[in-house]
Amino acid sequence: MYFNINEIVKKELEDIGNICKAIEASVKMDDKKMKQKPDKAVKKSNESSETCYIYERNTKEGLVYYKHVVCGDKQRTIRLGGSDNAEVIRIKQDRFNKALLKRLKRDIALLKKISGKFLSYDPDSVDNDLRPVYRDQTGLVNKTPGIVNQNEWNKINKKNRFEMPENCNITFDGAKTRSKSELIEYGVFKGYGLIIKYDVEIKLKNEIGQTVVVSPDFVILCDDGSIIIVEHLGMLDDSEYLKNALKKIHLYLINGYKLNENLFLTADYAQGKINAQVIDELVRKMILPRVRGRAA
Questions:
Q1: Element spanning 204, H or E
Q2: CA max distance for the chain
Q3: What is the pLDDT of residues 248-279, one digit of tens each?
Q4: Whole-prediction pTM
């Protein structure tokens, strides 16, 4: 498992930046409302700004919140009510938003410092940076020494028995795919540094214990040596295709694969359209955490 750290940092910066903008807008709006409705209990002076905090006390009525307001040399304590009081909730929300905003801005500053400074550590990048005499062309050098157990992975080598069509799609690194959607998914997987095999054969058992051969669209290697299967369903409007796809998924399930754990399904929209952003989100939020983790 290898990650394009620079791309991940870039995406994280973008996501955090969007969250910051939303929270800042909320905080500014809340502050504006407070200025429009100053606390009548304390008169503001031109030289001093109003500050306040809340505290709680156990009373015969239950837990009661109070707001202590300070403006210059004037102070006042106001009884608000219980934990469901609107002003109590507003003050808690404001304090949470500002604390979260402060933490996010700190993270943005840290991410900006490291952005673009990571060296890729996928096998090809490491090999290409070596002097030519040390580069391996035989395939005998183990380029994934960090993987705990590669036995299952090493067995997956046989290509799909159905030949690739002549007018197939070509990926950025020269691999061939059967559809444009799989071409896009291949690029997303590679972009995150995942170790994948495309259109290969694996052996499973059917309901009566017979060995059957299936060809997953993608097989992904996890840190612990286990594998994840990704199947792209590109022709769901074809009844025969759908029937065969369901049989294939059933085989995965009876062989111990679990949906959204080590078996992921993607599909085209109408007219064969695909949303690469959805695939990217699937990888970041569901597949990457599984690849990084350990099998149960």
A1: strand 202-205
A2: 86
A3: 999 999 988 999 999 999 988 777 788 889 99
A4: 0.52
